[in-house]
From TrEMBL, chain A:
Lineage: Bacteria, Pseudomonadati, Pseudomonadota, Gammaproteobacteria, Chromatiales
Domain LUD as annotated: residue spans: 117-211
Cross-referenced InterPro entries: FTHF_cligase-like_sf, LUD_dom, NagB/RpiA_transferase-like
Official protein name in the record: LUD domain-containing protein
Species in which this protein is naturally found: Alkalilimnicola ehrlichii
From TrEMBL, chain B:
One GO MF term: 4 iron, 4 sulfur cluster binding
Record-given protein name: Iron-sulfur cluster-binding protein
A biological-process GO annotation: lactate metabolic process
Organism: Alkalilimnicola ehrlichii
Alphabetical list of Pfam families matching this protein: Fer4_8, LUD_dom, LutB_C
Cited SUPFAM superfamilies: alpha-helical ferredoxin, NagB/RpiA/CoA transferase-like
Amino acid sequence: MNGSKEAILERIRRSQGNTKRDLETARQARKAIAPVLPKQVDTQEQAQFLGRLELAGASWEQLAGASEIPQAAARFCSEHGLPKRIVLGDHAFFRDLPWDSEWECLSPQPQYIDGALAITLALAGIAETGSLATTSTPEQPTTLNFLPDQQLVVLPAGRIVDSLETLWGRLRASGLPRTVNLVTGPSRTADIEQTIQLGAHGPRQLHVILLPS
Amino acid sequence: MKAQSHRFKANSQQALRDADLQAALGRAKSGFVDKRAKAIDALPEFEALRERGRQVRAHSLAYLDVYLERFSAQVEHSGGRVHWASDADEARRHIVDICQRQQARLVIKSKTMVGEEIAINEALEEAAIEVVETDLGEYIIQLAKEPPSHIIAPAVHKTRDQISSLFDRVHHQRQGQPTRAVPDLVDEARQVLRKKFRRADVGITGANFLIAEEGSALIVTNEGNADLCMSLPRVHIVLTSIDKLVPTLEDASTLVRLLGRSATGQPMTTYTTLVTGARRANDTAGPEEFHVVLLDNGRSQMLDGPFREMLHCIRCGACLNHCPVYSAIGGHAYGWVYPGPMGSVLTPHFIGLDKSKDLPHACTLNGRCEAVCPVKIPLPKLLRRLRAASFEQGLTQPVERSAVGLWGKLAQRPVAYRAATAGAHRILRVIQRLDWQRPPFLGAWTAHRSLPHASRETFVSTWHRQREKTHER
């Protein structure tokens, strides 16, 4: 097995003319490649984020505070004719909200969350693309972004950043988790006659709840 | 997949006569082209990004050995394992071994062209392990027992009618039903595949990019199927090739900006996922084991020589969508895994030029593939190099060889050359005056095209006349 590693690296070195290189040389050489970041279209990051989010097929609303989340979730359920079955992400954030006894809260284990509404907390919003960033944590597993039929994502406005690069900088500082998910709109496929159909494998609807910073 | 590229001419003829295929291709073509154009018009920095993308790819290859070592060390550091494979057979053995050690009965897969390249499904099936494709397009062609015909839209050659009867037959054992609507078909696949996801022991995904500094894989899908493949089963295998490496997350971001727009016209693919190692100690989801299979399969040799730039490719499919030949015949006619312009350069390297000698000629040299390539691969130049190689190796037809030889001899004798072109010109004028639409011996040309319109005089006589005029003055 190691034999193949050495053989492959040896073939590459031979193809490169066997010049001596190391990681530091590579890093130095890379500095010659100037960064290119798309310019922001909207002067306001929040406005740009929401505009891109809509283009990607997601919806959003703004609330005055986190205590209004259960009401917003109830409205979403009644609008879409859904039972009040939910899976909550990040517990520290969601558990003290005023959920009344009508809500059935499921465990986030994969076998329980089919067909439920997931309510998760985003780590960041990316203004450039309208993407929501989340990382896998013990309380908010990555599967919450994919198994539910619908997803509500709570995003405090202060978490909106301009670009992917800013997000990477922050994540690197704290060490990368197993999964970083960038979600841009609901799941879709165009594999049948190029017709875009939402809800291929992941959520059919994606709704963002924006909180004040 | 057994290469059929030597049958390219016959396959193309057949494709042109296939009414269903022509209907499907007609629908697909303008869709891809228009969506890309719209997305690029909306981003004034696209050209600057393209240049940066090219530089990132060139740099990554220039230090490929260094970055591969860094990547591999980082994967092991985050609790994963790297398996190196010199060729397809070794990659298949790595994967079958991992699955057998896990006593896996069901493997779920998201789309990977490297998987097609090494025919991993066949290898797993031979080991009595069930494999299920989860990308809708791949699932459709797996049921139909066909190879993909496009690198990002594998079932683009299928009509809704065909998919509907395929699902009826496989899922319901019935036939002769009316064609079903798209939402109905998509939802049925979702339900069927959800059950497979729950039971699967191993998930295989490809990787769009590998990040050397972090030891991460970046994987994009619109459906979310790769994410389910990599988070539900207890083992996740990334099956990919050594050329997918880039130094940093910032470099991958540049390529992500180019990839979505070039492939589907999306500024960002719906699910863009960065995965690093296995599940962490307290995680409640994610695989217990994380493996990366790194395939070489001739790529390290391609680095040395005139086809190196082909390794810049990020597999967006834009060159296929903008190719008049691909648009006319579809992907299957090319006879192996990678179709269209990028495939016509890659296939001879993988299966041998002698078995795919027609592919470099399946090109009008209109240059659109190079113009739309997000990392500026000079595809027409590479195809011309393959044509030259094919001539040098004596792989071209005797008629063609003697014609080129004859032309070469003529071109070295100006008097004879002038006489010959003047003669040809005269014949063309006669044909034109007689309004002869189908002159004999030229059937292969005139069946699909008009003869070129003869100018009033030859270039050489125009040249002489102009010179005389200038001298008179």
